[in-house]
Amino acid sequence: MPSSAKSTRLVIVESPTKAKTISGYLGPGYVVEASLGHVRDLPAGAKQLPEKYKKEPWAYLGVDVDHDFTPVYIVNPDRSKQVTRLKSLLKDANELYLATDEDREGEAIAWHLVETLKPKVPVKRMVFHEITKSAIEAAVANPRDIDRDLVDAQEARRILDRLYGYDVSAVLWKKVMPKISAGRVQSVATRIVVERERQRMKFRSAEYWDVTAVLAVREVDQGPQTFSATLIALDGDRIATGKDFDPTTGRVRPGAGVVHLDADGARGLAARLAGRPFTVTRVEEKPYRRKPYPPFITSTLQQEAARKLRLSSAATMRIAQRLYENGYITYMRTDSVNLSEAALAAARRQIADLYGDRNVPPEPRRYTGKVKNAQEAHEAIRPAGDQFRTPGELANELSTEEFRLYELIWRRTIASQMTDAVGSSVSVRIRAVTEAGEECDFGATGKTITDPGFLRAYVESSDDEEAEAEDAERRLPTLVKDQPLDPRELEAVGHSTQPPPRYTEASLVKALEELGIGRPSTYATIMGTIQDRGYVFRRGQALIPSFLAFAVVGLLERYYPRLVDYDFTAAMEDELDEIASGDMRAVEFLRSFYFGSDDGAEGSVSRSGGLKRMVTEQLAEIDAREVNSIPLFTDSAGREVVVRVGRYGPYLQRSAPGAAQPSGSSADGNGNGGDRATLPEGIAPDELTPEKVEELFLGGGGERKLGEHPETGEPVVVKSGRFGPYVSTGDRNASLLRSQSPDSITLADALKLLSLPRLVGRDPEGNEIFAAAGRYGPYVKRGDDFRSLESEDQIFTITLDEALALLAAPKTRQRRAPAPPLRELGNDPLTDKPLVIKDGRFGPYVTDGETNASLRRSQSVEELTLEEASQMLAEKRAKGPAPRKKATAAKKTSTTAKKTSAAAKKTSAAKKAGAAATKATAKKAAAKKATPAKAQSKS
Fold first, then answer.
1. Helix-helix angle 523-532:313-325, to 10 degrees
2. DSSP code per residue over 761-791
3. How many Å is the Cα radius of gyration of the chain?
4. Which terminus of the chain, N or C, has fewer Cβ atoms within 10 Å?
5. Which candidate, 356, 469, 482, 461, places its Cα nearest to that of 418?
6. 391 Cβ contact list (under 8 Å, min separation 6)
7. pLDDT at 673
8. How far apart are CA 427 and CA 424, in angstroms?
9. Distant-in-sequence contacts of 1-5, Cβ < 8 A, 24+ apart
10. In the beta sheet, which residues pair with residue 485?
11. Which residues lie closer than 8 Å to 765 by C-beta, 6 or more apart?
């Protein structure tokens, strides 16, 4: 690209990878540097604010809510070094090009860069949706100004999330649990998952039966000789299927007008149909046509990647980001299904080359998005360039995960421009009559695909794993009305209704999109946030809400229902979009949300009291115990069973027999004879059936009686406690050994544990030698002299001679060789130190050798990127070292003082304190006399 030899143009992008790719397309007159993401943001708290703002009532928000919601921005501490570098590069530049992403987030980053760097040279905004040579050249040749409407929309979104997050989270801290959070979208997403779990908890299964017949044609012209048909009606009344049952009762819905067959009824009917003639009563054939799917947008890419590749939303976006920044695909945060003219031509050429001209439709296909406020000027996610590279061409350039995602995108794009899949579908009705005159109607359906069309390239998956694939065929013999059929097999088949399926990340993203909640750039973050906060955990692909989520959602639904209302949240998204399009002012929107609006204008998101009034006026009304109690059921003994969300986690509680208590009552196991049981980690709320609850109270996770102590007659029980399982009798407790399980421990095992420490014997000097189990494993000890044992069995078997020999041997501290890292990430772009992931006591963590940061629940060792690891460590460094705990008075007190009485200690402490105070006063006075008056006034 031509440029003046004397001029230097500074191009700023977000990431080093993007900078490297773009710099390869620009000439020597350009310097491309990364900002490493956002350079400015709202302060994390009042401590980061400039001194002049710290005493303001809004300081904790970092937003001056009293003066048009003016935000106070600070340069991120971990970005200050990079900002200095950018300022230095800018001094030698004649022009500044801002090449951040084309969405609202990218526009905001560009604006913050201008506000931070304060350039004195011309500033131009480069916009492109793919990183190819032609796209970059076009962006340089056609720059624009920063779009302030987009910036305002992003700023309003950021301020809105801060107001919601900080004020509502403060309520949760006080009423549920410290250090948990609420969020404008995360709380609604959590509510969706909780509501599904509530449906599953209320679900009652139903059993229903039908009859399947294997029928054969007598003369075969073409197709299979046999096929299966299912009983659909008896004497004109439809046979009940799963949809006819009420999910909360397990009974047939009133007025359904169906025949509910049980096992005996279905088997008896099958027996009565044996040997009876079957006749075709109706044949309906229709043409089958299926149009291709539109190319990917962000949400559909995440959904299909989850279904086909088993990737989380975050992993999908990380891989897509790499593909985009290295020039393989177009921008991956989009809600538009449009393809450019060049992309349409590239797709049609490639279809003709790979699948033949007959699979290219006469005209290009143009799709209309279903997403509200989609930015149609953007493009769908597709292979980059004017000529698509096939996955085979990139096999040696991409990693395995990159290749699989690129192939998915390529296939979807190509398929979107191919011909329809066509064929025929047939529906057949067959009748048989028992000797008793019962008319039994059977049905069968078939599908034949004569031209697969786009299905040659791509078949969409379903969230229902039992759903039939769209390219699957069900071929039936050629049948005509009144044709006789021979029954080969008749079988009664039982079915059970199933609870509604749990959400996966894919189906939750789809639900949010359908509700108009969230935007392409936020879906992956939402999925990660609700898991990191402990509101949702994964079991395979399924998302399961925790009881903490039940408590939080319950509080919000009862006291702040609008904040988790789907329509209200979607309306806020619409108004943010109106700000982006310049049709609404951000300040009016924020004022209405935070302070409320009295104008009653239709469409206002807050036509009554605003957020501030809600969280302050209703706080006193919230009963903390009530919102932290999730009622389950009343058992057969009339005891109410609830889950309590406590400081150390959820636990079960039930009232005393015959003394049922309301879920919010302050009565507990200690006050009214009720009892408690710990919940096993990872149990799903819908798994707490009456049977499972009883099991937990009797044993599994609660308390199980092993027998009576032979000496005291007291019961010996195994319990599950905060620090693991243990056995107990009277006032004695003993933790289980690592090799023991609460499910299999016996009374004899428990008595052995309760006898510890075991006296092995005495040495020649009369010193006692004990064997026991400790935090670091089994050991023997004599006084303060310890030696480790090789196995837990030795605690009960080691002899005195063996113990003496072990204690006589010198202590050997064998340092283990450091375990190799789980993964090497490369050098930190901020510090240039090598980053690795290691396995620690509390799970995997990333480290640069000096600073450590634990991986979050939603992060995995395999999927963590270098940029994410760098950001995690930067945030940890910004927080500073954890404060050291002060030494307690007990540690400072001498052994002699410990043995004195409490009164003596108080007297001694008082005397010492008085003496110290006198000395301090004297020192101060002396210092004051020695200090010049000028220095005194300055201090």
1. 140
2. EE-TT--EEEEEEETTEEEEEETTEEEE-SS
3. 36
4. C
5. 356
6. 403, 406, 407, 410
7. 44
8. 10
9. 1/25, 1/26, 1/27, 1/30, 1/137, 1/140, 2/27, 3/27, 3/28, 3/29, 3/30, 4/29, 5/29
10. 217, 278
11. none
- What's the rounded Cα separation, in Å, for the pair 463 and 101? 32
Residue that has been written with the tokens 């340092």 in this structure: 815
Query: 811 near 787, Cβ under 8 Å?
Result: yes
Q: Which of 509, 568, 513 is nearest to 184 (CA)?
A: 568
- List phi, psi (to 5°) of 895: -60, -35
Both tokens of 846, joined, read 């990333």
Report d(CA 183, CA 512) in Å as an integer: 14
Pairing of strands 207-217, 484-496: antiparallel
* Residue/partner pairs of 752-759 with CB below 8 Å, 24 or more apart: 752/796, 753/727, 754/709, 754/716, 754/727, 754/729, 756/795, 757/781, 758/795, 758/796
β-strand pairing of 237-239 with 258-259: parallel
Q: How far is CA 527 from the centre of its chain?
A: 4
The tens digit of pLDDT for each residue in 276-296 reads: 999 999 999 999 999 999 999
What's the CA gap between 613 and 562, in Å, rounded?
A: 13
Backbone angles phi, psi at 493, to 5 degrees: -120, 130
**Axis-axis angle for helices 547-559, 186-202 (nearest 10):** 110
On the 0-12 / 13-18 / 19+ scale of CB atoms within 10 A, 936 is: exposed
Cα gap 530→181, rounded to integer Å: 10
Angstrom distance (rounded) from CA 317 to CA 521: 9
Per the CB < 8 A criterion, the answer to whether 97 and 126 are in contact is yes
- Contact at 8 Å (CB) between 430 and 279? yes
Residues pairing with 649 in the sheet: 646
Asked whether the beta carbons of 70 and 58 are under 8 A apart, the reply is no
* Other Cβ atoms closer than 10 A to 735: 17
The angle that helices 148-175 and 104-117 make with each other, rounded to 10 degrees, is 100
Question: Edge-to-edge strand order for the sheet containing 843-847?
Answer: 823-827, 834-840, 843-847, 852-854
Any idea of the CA torsion for 43, 45, 48, 49, to the nearest 10 degrees? 80
Cα separation, 185 vs 569, in Å, equals 8
Which residues 6+ apart lie within 8 Å of 407 measured at CB?
391
**Among the listed residues 334, 353, 349, 328, the one whose alpha carbon sits nearest the alpha carbon of residue 294:** 334
Cα separation, 61 vs 67, whole angstroms: 13
Euclidean distance between CA atoms 659 and 673, whole angstroms: 9
Is 746 strand, coil or helix?
coil
Q: How far is CA 835 from the centre of its chain?
A: 25
Element at 566 (helix H, strand E) = helix 566-580
Contact (Cβ atoms closer than 8 angstroms) between residue 807 and residue 800: no
User: Which of 746, 707, 714, 747 lies closest to 732, judged by CA?
Assistant: 714
Tokens 């204690």 locate to: 807
Q: What is the DSSP string of 441-466?
A: EEEEEEEEEEE-GGGGT-----SSTT
The whole-angstrom distance between residue 81's C-alpha and the CA centroid of its chain comes to 33
- What is the DSSP pairing of strand 758-762 with strand 768-774? antiparallel
Query: Which amino acids are annotated catalytic?
Result: 331
Residues listed for the chain: 939
Question: Which residues of the chain register pLDDT less than 50?
Answer: 1-5, 376, 600-607, 660, 662-673, 700-701, 814, 816, 885, 887-939
Under 8 Å between Cβ of 315 and 306: no
DSSP at 123: E
User: What are the Cα distances from residue 333, in Å, to 34, 102, 103, 369, 581?
Assistant: 20, 9, 8, 15, 18
Reading the block at residue 795, the tokens are 């605690």
